[in-house]
Amino acid sequence: MRYNETLANRIAEKLMHLPDVEEKEMFGGLIFMVDNKMCIGVMKDKVMLRLAPESLVALENVDGWELMVMSNTVMKGYILVSQDVLNRKEDLDFWINLALEFNPLAKASKKKKI
Question: How far apart are CA 107 and CA 103, in angstroms?
């Protein structure tokens, strides 16, 4: 499976009211860039979120998420949320809102010079 397109469509619908959202296929999934910054993504059957690393303490007792690991490296400030805990609109809204709250504080990636 490339990525869960139904989940990606649910997220796209939640973000369509924002002025600067771009979809990019990356890392084998679909990434939603908000204000030119990686914010939310769908990786297979999980939602990737970019959050303030210090906010993870408040999520310790919340089920359904894990730290994002790529090539045996924990990606600081990125988590994966299982689709199993995103069935209700309110649950998906909770996670999306966390990422959108952090987005204005997130640093944009440096543009590569061609």
Answer: 8
Quote the number of domains for the chain.
Answer: 1
pTM of this prediction? 0.90
Q: The domain that contains 89 carries what CATH number?
A: 3.90.1150.30
Measure the CA–CA gap between 4 and 113, rounded to whole angstroms.
Answer: 33
**Which segments of the chain does DSSP mark as H helices, in order?**
5-15, 89-102
- How many residues are listed for the chain in this entry? 114
pLDDT per residue, tens digit, the chain (114 aa), is 689 999 999 999 999 999 999 999 998 899 999 999 999 999 999 999 999 999 999 999 999 999 999 899 999 999 999 999 999 999 999 999 999 999 999 988 776 666
